[in-house]
Amino acid sequence: MTGADLLPIGEDDLHAYVDGQLAQARREAVEQHLSTDPEAARRVAAYQQQRAALRAAFAAPDEPLPARLMLASILRERRRSRLPNWRIAAGLVLGVALGGSAGWLLHVPSGRGSVAMATLEQEAFSSHTVYAADRRHPIEVGASEAAHLRQWLSNRLDRSVAPPDLSASGYHLIGGRLLATEHGNAAALFMYENAGGQRLSLLFRPMAPTMRASPKDISQGRMNGCAWIDKGMGYAVVGVMPDSELDGIADDIRVALNTG
Amino acid sequence: MVGVMASMEACIPSLRRYARALLRDRDQVDDLVHDVIVRALDQLHTRREDGDLRAWLFAIMHNLFISRVRRNKRRGPLVSLDEAGDDRFGMPATQDGHMLGRDLLRALDALNEEQRSVLLLVTVEDLSYAEVARVLDIPIGTVMSRLSRARDRLRGLMEGEAPTAIRRVK
User: How far is B29 from chain A (nearest CA, A)?
Assistant: First the structure.
């Protein structure tokens, strides 16, 4: 006998019994109680029938998910809707129409943001082209010195940077390197590789502190990627892979880094 | 949180089942699920890493559903059970299941929304009482009292209206 089965059986116990949410000792105590209380036993039986009927009525159908509920197609749809230029322009017109000042407030950062995004994009593709193609020396510090790599690049960028774990997507970190931006600042590039030898690079590129831009799909030649800016840091992931795979990885990176 | 996409994908069928229980109309069901996924993707970075993904998705669905119900109340009612043809329901086609399903659904519709959500999350979705409390943002004591009232009400309705139907379920 434990303490739990000595407590009187209450209303909540009957429900938890029906729903299979009791530990074994308590379940046995409830069964004991039901054998001596026919009214409680009738109620429990009715609840059990209800539960079975509801589950049968709403049993998951075998039918496949419609295409528009597949995650891959929703991700594709989101990428298409990530504000192409005409929609930004339409938003601006609307902003101005709704209230002059709101329109102008919108205008200024988006103008600067698009220049910053173009720079980020170009640096990401150039770096990937040059370093991912280098079979022997793609990086300066290897993943085996992960703590040193993080510390070194965080010091040089004067911000905390850490490469996320992408092993669930099949990519493992091989290491990282320091880059020079066209503005004479330091940026960090992390390189990943999958079992097939395909490489993926992730760029951390400091920006003006207030800068922010939503994720945008980018591509150049066979390379595709995703770039965004959050709290003054530009991020770009670039690789050669199907869009849907890259999208999933980019979303995972945003979650891991806790960025826009 | 790498792999969150795969986990989310695995939750879609049960989101759809819960949406079907809330709404029944196939198009509205898929619209709701679609909007839940889109919102979840937008808010992924705000999610607490240690939180349960499924409960979090159900919470998003619940909030969207409630705001939709409120909006529809202002614009006119959703299609009611009696008006809707059978083809609008995602019910199993077996004869017993069908008859029982209709009685049960009518009784379920007679519950208030608060009781219905708790009952469905507990019985159909197998969420723990603590998870239901988080999804609906209510204390666990309220979960228990709503569950109890929902079950007694449903029992009264089913026994009053269709005494033979419920006994078919074994």
Answer: 11
